[in-house]
Amino acid sequence: MKRDAVTGGGCLVSAAGVVVAVWLWGASDRTQRHLGNEFENNGQDFGAVLTELPFVFLAGAVVPAAVWGLGVWLLGRRRGRSESSRASEFHA
User: Cα dist. 4→9, 10, 49, 51, 83 in Å?
Assistant: First the structure.
């Protein structure tokens, strides 16, 4: 794979991970309860947004990018190993 394609793919996976993580966090019952989705906004706690949202955002960005990078690294090692074994067959 070309380096630009790998970098672009990692950025796209990271951006998609952020969107999905924030969406899942916002749709959860616990978050809805903290944001006041109950009777007359009882139990509204915006501190949950300030403390949890940055971690959700970072986890959504880092975890998919790390998995993408690990996959690219493993495929690169596998490809490099198979090319080196083919080269040794031809030189033997």
Answer: 8, 10, 35, 35, 22
Rounded CA separation 17/78 (Å) = 26
- pLDDT per residue over 10-48, tens digit each? 889 999 999 999 999 989 888 887 777 666 666 677 787
Query: Is residue 64 packed enough to be buried (19+ CB in 10 Å), middle (13-18) or exposed (0-12)?
Result: buried
Tokens (6 digits) for 8: 């672009």
Tell me the one-letter amino acid at 55: F
User: Which residues are CB-neighbours of 44 under 8 A, at least 6 positions away?
Assistant: 34, 35, 36
